[in-house]
């Protein structure tokens, strides 16, 4: 029996081609689905990481703002205040605290490795340590320290940003507790 390459069975014409094309279409659809799922997972992971970086930058700024040089300042202290309508930092002399300008404070809190920084804004209520002044202690602290103590209250409002336009905002308060008869005794406590 000699087989000739020119002769084919009538019922098998094009079947192998149709089967091959069908398998290629199915594999292509599966590849697209896998690629789409991978891209979605990568986007979620990247956003999570960027959000975490922004939160860490905001936490770092709160710790920085809690330093005695800044916290004991009598006026409000801005960490990233820019002039209205520009991207230039405010250079008023009353914004210089312990020899550091707004630009110095911003640079101290910027992290080029992770791409995090404070949000620059001309809004005086963002990235600021507000000195709310002295007052009697709240009931919870008064029961702990007694009536002979008072507190100087501060509100810290921080907003940081990271890659992918991720932002994190932290608002906290600090209390500098002092003895009413002697202002040299300081204890700082925080509340979230």
Structure description:
This protein is an alpha+beta fold and 192 residues long. The chain has one domain (30-191). The protein contains four helices and six strands; from the N terminus they run H-H-E-H-E-E-H-E-E-E. Strands 1, 2, 3, 4, 5 and 6 form a six-stranded antiparallel beta sheet that branches.
What is the structure about, briefly put?
By secondary structure, this protein is α+β, with helices and mostly antiparallel strands.
Which features would summarize this protein structure in a list?
alpha+beta, six-stranded antiparallel sheet, 6 strands
Largest sheet: 6 strands, antiparallel
How large is the share of residues in beta strands?
25-35%
Instruction: Compute the number of strand runs.
Output: 6
Task: Measure the end-to-end span.
Answer: 92 Å
Give a topology summary:
Blueprint: H1 15-65, H2 68-71, E1 77-78, H3 102-109, E2 117-118, E3 128-136, H4 139-145, E4 149-162, E5 166-179, E6 182-191
Antiparallel strand pairs: 1-3, 2-4, 3-4, 4-5, 5-6
Transmembrane segments: 15-37
Keywords: Membrane, Transmembrane, Transmembrane helix
Protein name: Type 4 fimbrial biogenesis protein PilX N-terminal domain-containing protein
């Amino acid at each position: 029996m000699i087989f000739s390459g020119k002769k084919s069975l009538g019922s098998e014409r094009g079947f192998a081609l149709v089967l091959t094309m069908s398998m290629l279409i199915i594999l292509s659809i599966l590849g697209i689905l896998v690629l789409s799922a991978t891209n979605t997972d990568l986007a979620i992971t990247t956003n999570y990481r960027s959000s975490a970086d922004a939160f860490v930058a905001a936490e770092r700024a709160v710790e920085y703002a809690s330093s005695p040089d800044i916290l004991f300042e009598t006026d409000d202290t801005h960490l990233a205040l820019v002039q209205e309508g520009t991207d230039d930092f405010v250079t008023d002399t009353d914004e210089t605290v312990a020899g550091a300008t707004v630009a110095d404070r911003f640079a101290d809190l910027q992290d080029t490795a992770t791409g995090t920084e404070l949000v620059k804004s001309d809004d005086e209520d963002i990235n600021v340590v507000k000195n709310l002044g002295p007052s009697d202690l709240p009931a919870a602290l008064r029961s702990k320290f007694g009536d002979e103590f008072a507190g100087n209250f501060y509100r810290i409002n921080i907003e940081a940003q990271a890659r992918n336009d991720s932002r994190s905002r932290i608002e906290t308060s600090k209390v500098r507790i002092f003895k009413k008869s002697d202002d040299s005794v300081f204890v700082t406590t925080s509340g979230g």
